Amino acid sequence: IHGGPQERVWEPLVHAFWLNPLFRIGYKRRLEEDDMYKVLPEDGSERLGEELQSLWDHEVQKAAKDLRPPKLTKVLIKCYWKPYAVLGIFTLIEEVIKVIQPVFLGKLIQYFEKYDPDNMDALYEAFGYAAGVCLSTMILAVTHHLYFFHVQRTGMKMRVAMCHMIYKKALCLSSVAMGKTTTGQIVNLLSNDVNKFDEVTIFLHFLWVGPLQAAAVLGLLWVEIGPSCLAGMAVLVILMPTQTMFGRLFSKFRSKTAALTDNRIRTMNEVVSGIRIIKMYAWEKPFSALVNEVRRKEISKIMSSSYLRGLNMASFFAASKIIVFITFTIYVLLGNTISASRVFVTVSLYSAVRLTVTLFFPSAVEKLSETRISVRRIKTFLLLDEIVKSNHGFLQEEKQEPSVEIQDLICYWDKVNVQLLPPRLLDTLTVLFTAITNTFITSSLLSSILGELPHDKGVLKVKGQLTYASQQPWVFPGTIRSNILFGKELHPQKYEKVLRACALKRDMELLPDGDLTLIGDRGATLSGGQKARVNLARAVYQDADIYLLDDPLSAVDAEVGRHLFEQCICGILKNKPRILVTHQLQYLQAANQILVLKEGHMVARGTYSELQRSGVDFTSLLKREEEGPQAPGAETESRSPRSRTLSQNSVVSHTSSIRSVKDGTDQLPAEPVQTIVEESRSEGTIGVGLYVKYLKAGANILVLIGVVLLQFLAQAAYILQDWWLAYWAGEQEKLNVNGTVTVPNGVNVTEELSLDFYLGIYAGLTGATLIFGFARSLMMFNVLVKAAQSLHNRMFNSILRTPVRFFDINPIGRVLNRFSKDIGQLDAALPWTFVDFIQIFLQIIGVIAVAASVIPWILIPLVPLVIVFLFLRRYFLQTSRDVKRLESTTRSPVFSHLSSSLQGLWTIRAFRAEERFQNTFDTYQDLHSESWFLFLVTSRWFAVRLDGMCAVFVTITAFGCLLLRDQVEAGSVGLALSYAVTLMGMFQWGVRQSAEVENMMTSVERVVEYTELESEAPWETQKRPPPEWPSQGLITFDRVSFSYSSDGPVVLKDMKAMFRPKEKVGIVGRTGAGKSSLVSALFRLAEPEGRIYIDGVLTSEIGLHDLRQKMSIIPQDPVLFTGTMRKNLDPFSQHTDEDLWNALQEVQLKSVVEELPNKMETVLAESGSNFSVGQRQLVCLARAVLRKNRILIIDEATANVDPRTDELIQKTIRDKFRECTVLTIAHRLNTIIDSDRILVLDAGQIHAYDEPHTLLQNHDGIFFKMVQQTGRQEAVALLQSAKQVSSTLTQQSISTLLSHSVLYGNLVIFETAL
């Protein structure tokens, strides 16, 4: 269908033939992205953005010269005023016609007043006037839509240009600026603030057309009814400021609501991303209290702003009635008689000017003030600090060695925590490979080399191209190949080599589409280890001079780590300078130079042997490493800290071997990849049931019936008021014709109508209209906002109670979208549209009823019109809904691209890929523009056709009256015609609103869908365990099978095991053996089959909270929540300050917390990002210390923690939890080799379960093999410690068994039977 829109920008709106094929397709099947027209060159994102950007840069420079803040508004006006000004002409034409039309109408009614069957001239003249009325209706139909289409398009251009600028700015924010803004805020600029441009352009012209039109109408009215028109105008003038005041108040509420909404969504974000932890800690209640509190505040603001909206709409609805009432009351009281032509000319003129003055003009003012706020927010963002671009390249002539040189470097992140690198020279001219070990400062060093961290003093010189692999692996949505190539072209051999070196070959073979597999948002389809390797491969593939590798080995297990180190870091890269940050000391011997950093200072530097001689405390880190020259070492955690929590990847992995280049026996197990469920997007129409559900959420049946009655009463009063005027004029007319009665004595007496009677009833009807109008509006809003509130609460509770599995298969964005976008619709847009639609619908019915009562014949042509209309609406709605859907689906890549770019900001900048990301952003924008453009054009296409139908209706009515001229009265003609003319804008607006309501109901549908999720077992049941349970900590698994979903693979098969009280058990196994699933079964994250007893209580019978609160867990990825430090440790406020400080002291965090500005009350940054991973881990440990439970589960949390912290955690666990049963899921064997017993899992079954020493006797066992894989020297050490443990154990276990056999006789028998 690529007959482009460009050549025909006028014709499209009149009949838009090039849209017909689109509608035809849309009617037959769902529209897809390829069906859209290409975006017009002048609407391209890049072109528009660069144009505005250059003007803005110019303005910034000029402002700096004149020492004033730069003005963004000025730039916008400068850029867009010309084409926009031209559009003013359309508005002018339209408003002029609106004023002329009533004059024709008046002349037509006059003909009926002075009706004389024989006067043919008058009849022809009347036909002329009727034609005038009809023609002006037709012209209005066309100009109105032309104007709207073009102004909206200008708005679109402004929006697109602003987005381009915002994204461009986001890519070059400095670290200080990143501290001042959050990802959420930037996304908010892009999703909400920028949309104000779309709205403001529509109304701006009315700022000057409005007053002009008002003046013209005033003149005509003066001619028609003299000075009493001033009274009516006065009411209009009073109405204007009140409406503007409403607008002001409204935007004040709006900004308060926005702040609360941001807050709620941020909390929701944390709840959803940390849902696993929240469930395992049983913290749902404090979190739901938190969200409900924020939501309550938000709803009260929304309720107030909705009432304002309601008053606004009701006053709009009643304004014309009040105006006409006051005008005619004064007119009659001044002693004039009323006539039909006067009444209806006045009514029509007022309604012409009313729209402009009470709706468009205040809207223009309101939107202008809203836009100014948004522009100010955008401007603040655009003026944030940018990063200083340093140029680390070589000039062509000088062929030097690449190097990094650092001297006396002092850097600050935010002028609070200082980090120094002392006066030493780190010079990699001669050094090919530098390893930096220990502490959290290392990342800061790399960031200063990258230029992310501004340095205060000292020298930092970098010669050569840098490339960087970040610690938290970052992947962007796209294929794996595009993630590795990252904009470079593909050289197959080099690419293969890189894949092999980064141990990705096997993974690629297992993926459904190989390296063309799409990665979801945040790399959701890859496991942590795979992400880390892709991240590394990306760095290796770039041909740079210096490689900065920030702990790339921590997220993978030992085998893979060794492979990466030998094949990649010392293989492919062996001739390049590499700076490697690592906590894994076994790799240090290969380093040419080692820097040891501690708390910002450089403690030692030199080669491996130099450092050993100097005897720095570094050697204490190196305990056992000295014996063999080759010490490939300790197994590390096999997942990245972020991606994998329990269960996500515990799908049985297909273990199979990769033959690596060097070593035939090197087997690297591959990891399975999960796919993401396609988001449900509803098709077709929305059932009545949904509306009922929605309304019933807001009020009970009686209230709803009351509301419906009110609606009808209000509409009836509305029509009766006009009808009474017409009736009055008619009675007056009869009097005027046979008014003079000759009394016998020859004096003429003019009969008069009783003023009191007519005016009294008129006043009564006006009052009724007002009261009903306001009541129905406020009641409707009340019901609808309450519905939004109760639906949100139901959805939130249902999300909290749904099993964890749901969050594994639905990405965070999808769930959050329900809470932000859809609830936002329910709060703000839907109630307003709904009320508006109902009012208009009733009004249209009223118009038709009035016309039919005057000319019953009119019902005959109405039937085909209605049929055509229904067909058009169905035809249009199908396509329109698809276009709207496409608009929202093409919008999400824009946002996800922005947020993924912000996450990988350092990587993008280190690779100099800003330009490419900017272009991708522009492409996404253009795709969105295509659908937006279509949306504009299709809606105008439809509106022109509807207004055409209204014009036909007006024509039929006008000529119908003339043809039936013998049977009708002037008053009823006036009523019918003036009503028919109001149909014009109203009818198409009503239909558009009905479509809008239907579109927005999809939000209700999505929310309702989430209120009905399956929920996990109840939090509390009748069967409460005794308060001091579990006093012993004996855990028994009896034939437990476990799978994450009813149709998923079984990950634990028929497991029988017993963990004795106070026993320390290590759980080991290869990837996917079911280690994490064991914990999931224990916590009942999904319901296991079989029985699990704790101290003889069957866990599946008690409530989840009772169960989960009694076990402490230290999770794999430490999660901190935004809020104070105290809230993070103790959300229920159950402990005293003293307890909290003691717990912090035990995990050695006391000093850190004391240094914070408000100590315990310091509010943490988003998800605790101002703590290092190790510190976050310690906070989790502190939580466990506080809970003092008898059972502690540790999901190997030591991957990104340096050996010191690791040791600390181990020590704390041995001291503090001596009396507890501790289960440790281990990836590093040295952490669990001293356990009492070790449980070896393989493919969901128990392979072996015994003391470490005994296990090591079996040379075919998995455990023995795992120990051997750690390398010769490490294996010796492990055997040694296992021996020590076993000798001490034998004495203890005999005594404990005897003491327990009395208590748990039956269980011990059961155990021996095992």
UniProtKB/TrEMBL annotation:
GO cellular component, one term: early endosome membrane
Compartments where located: Apical cell membrane; Basolateral cell membrane; Early endosome membrane; Endoplasmic reticulum membrane
Residue ranges crossing the lipid bilayer per the database entry: 84-106, 126-149, 202-223, 230-250, 313-334, 343-361, 701-720, 761-785, 857-876, 942-965, 971-991
Polar residues: compositionally biased ranges: 643-659
Keywords: ATP-binding, Cell membrane, Chloride, Chloride channel, Endoplasmic reticulum, Endosome, Glycoprotein, Ion channel, Ion transport, Isomerase, Lipid transport, Membrane, Nucleotide-binding, Phosphoprotein, Repeat, Translocase, Transmembrane, Transmembrane helix, Transport
EC numbers, comma separated: 5.6.1.6, 7.6.2.2, 7.6.2.3
Mode of membrane association: Multi-pass membrane protein
Any single biological process term in GO: lipid transport
PROSITE patterns, alphabetized: ABC_TM1F (PS50929), ABC_TRANSPORTER_1 (PS00211), ABC_TRANSPORTER_2 (PS50893)
Keyword Zinc on entry: no
Domain ABC transporter: 404-624, 1035-1268
Pfam family, one: ABC_membrane
Region (Disordered): 623-669
Family: Belongs to the ABC transporter superfamily. ABCC family. CFTR transporter (TC 3.A.1.202) subfamily.
Subunit composition and interactions: Interacts (via PDZ-binding motif) with SNX27 (via PDZ domain); this interaction accelerates MRP4 internalization.
Name of this chain's protein: Cystic fibrosis transmembrane conductance regulator
Source organism of this protein record: Oncorhynchus mykiss (Rainbow trout)
